[in-house]
């Protein structure tokens, strides 16, 4: 079973981060894509895992990567910018590593 994980920060002080997290989660919910939210503000272990699994070329020069960060199991999909681009190009399912919309929702 494919598990899309969206790493979020529930207590982010940044309005932009909150809006980006809501946009990703809202899209997944609206399209019936099963996913799991992982709150990095509550789980230090998960935050460290996320940091370790983001490719070096996707990390900011200073500081830590900001949520939302999206994974398919252990495979890094991308951040909000990558997600937004895939949405604009109508390639979200490929971006998420899902073969089609049908595989996203086994009940349909």
Can you tell me about this structure?
This protein has 108 residues and is α+β, with helices and mostly antiparallel strands. The chain has a single domain (4-104), classed as Glutaredoxin (3-Layer(aba) Sandwich). It is 40% helix and 18% strand. The chain has a four-stranded mixed beta sheet, with helices on both faces. The two termini are 15 Å apart. The model is unreliable at 102-108 (pLDDT under 50).
Q: What's this model, at a glance?
A:
The chain is about 40% helix and about 20% strand.
Number of strands: 4
Query: What percent of residues adopt helix (DSSP H or I)?
Result: 25-40%
Instruction: Note the beta-strand portion.
Output: 15-25%
Low-pLDDT regions: 102-108
CATH topology: Glutaredoxin
SSE order: EHEHEEHHH
Shape estimate? globular
Main sheet attributes: strand count, strand direction, barrel closure: 4 strands, mixed
CATH architecture: 3-Layer(aba) Sandwich
Order of strands, main sheet, comes to: 2-1-3-4
Q: What is the helix tally?
A: 5
- What is the rounded distance between the termini? 15 Å
Q: Radius of gyration in whole Å, from Cα?
A: 13 Å
Structural class: alpha+beta
CATH class: Alpha Beta
Supply the CATH superfamily name: Glutaredoxin
* Mean pLDDT level: 90
Whole-number count of domains: 1
